[in-house]
Design a protein that fits this description.
Strands 1, 2, 3, 4, 5, 6, 7, 8, 9, 10, 11, 12, 13 and 14 form a 14-stranded mixed beta sheet that branches. It is globular and about 65 Å long. The chain is of the alpha+beta class. α4 links the parallel β4 and β5. α7 crosses α8. It contains twelve helices and 14 strands.
């Protein structure tokens, strides 16, 4: 017997919701859990500023009385206003290998969406692009990252059986960190600096970077990603929250800013040591001792770096400006002993973004998709 229940937003219920995939993937060497308390706050309407323009309902499935799956049904009103389409989203989506459980979870999200007047549903997506998104369809034997979903191969078949069709696709790449900065990159970077009067700006003081470029950084993200699939522009409240919560966590040696002659922000590259193994060992918990493997991942031996964000102002895109970022960052990667760098998901049709990896020996190692269904 399969039963699906709306669980509300109480702390105990959200903890069960967040911990379900940690149980589902126990022993899986490729799954990387989120930080549990961080994910609970993301789902909490009182904590997540995205609820200024989003609403959501959370469901869990039970089979024979035991937890069997979870799903979040979400409406992002901001995106709907931009697209003119009454669309719901589903996300935070995990389930046992059972087509009936998958169908029951999706049906619960669909019914909620219909009651809200929506005409279609798509996902997996989160509240905004800063949440994990996409269903993994290739790369099941690749270690996941802290910023991406992992799922078993059976997910896609069950989603398609439930009447969903592929809607978009993302690619991910892993690059070898070169022993030396590629000569072509050096030439391109020097040309770009002379032609556009650009330069790299570095910081050692986190409060100073927050003060000088915190808001500009997130405004640049809005400008850079504005036309991408399902993008939800960051609001003032979100920007203030992210400046406060996330900029302080960065290793500034792994952050590169590009500014013009007037010190205006033109581009940014944010990377950080991979926390994948640390999150696995901590099982997503900071306490009592989960912070130890995470700290080791940040400060100890680590052969992998995550390229969390690369953004260039639209008027400078396609002009080689990215070469400045990597001319600055590669020596730091070499000093830290990083052997590989991983990109975040990139839309499959976004050839201009993928072009930047031409300087490196790279491998396209993961794919993921979003799916859409019309609500009759």
């Amino acid at each position: 017997m399969i039963e699906v229940k709306a669980i509300g937003t109480g702390r105990r219920a959200l903890l069960e919701f967040v911990k379900f995939p940690i149980w589902l993937y126990k022993g899986n060497e490729y799954y990387v859990p989120p930080l549990v308390l961080d994910e609970v706050e993301t789902l909490n309407p009182a904590k997540n500023p995205a609820f200024e323009f989003c609403e959501a309902e959370y469901f869990m499935a039970f089979k024979d009385g035991k937890p069997a799956g979870r799903i979040a049904a979400i409406i992002n009103r901001q995106v709907n206003e931009r697209t003119g389409v009454k669309a719901a989203r589903f996300g935070f989506f995990d389930f046992i290998d059972d087509a009936e459980v998958c169908a029951a979870l999706l049906e619960a999200a669909e019914q909620w969406a219909r009651k809200k007047g929506m005409v279609e549903i798509l996902g997996p997506l989160g509240f905004t692009d800063l949440d994990r998104e996409g269903l993994l369809t290739f790369g099941f034997d690749e270690l996941s990252t802290m910023a991406t979903n992992y799922n078993y191969p059976y997910y896609e078949g069950h989603v398609l059986k439930a009447g969903y069709e592929p809607d978009t696709e993302w690619l991910e790449f892993v690059m070898d960190v070169p022993d030396a900065i590629p000569e072509k990159m050096i030439r391109v970077a020097d040309i770009v600096k002379r032609r556009f009067g650009l330069k790299i700006k570095k910081y050692k003081d986190k409060q100073a970077i927050k003060r000088d470029y915190g808001r500009a950084l997130f405004e640049l993200i809005n400008e850079t990603y504005d036309k991408l699939y399902g993008y939800s522009p960051l609001t003032d409240r979100q920007i203030e929250a992210y400046i406060k919560e996330y900029l302080g966590l960065l290793d500034l040696d792994l952050v590169s800013l590009i500014v013009d002659k007037d010190e205006q922000l033109v581009g940014v590259g944010i990377s950080m040591p991979s926390l994948s193994r640390g999150l696995q060992r901590s099982r997503g918990k900071l306490l009592p001792f989960g912070w130890i493997p995470l700290l080791k991942g940040l400060r100890g031996h680590n052969d992998r770096v995550d390229l969390m964000l690369v953004g260039i102002k639209p008027e400078y895109q396609g002009k080689g400006v990215n070469a400045l970022l990597f001319q600055d960052l590669i020596p730091e990667y070499q000093k830290r002993g990083f052997k590989w760098a991983e990109s975040n998901p990139e839309l499959a049709e976004n050839a201009s973004v993928q072009e930047q990896w031409k300087y490196f020996t790279s491998r396209q190692h993961r794919r993921r998709k979003a799916y859409r269904k019309q609500l009759g």
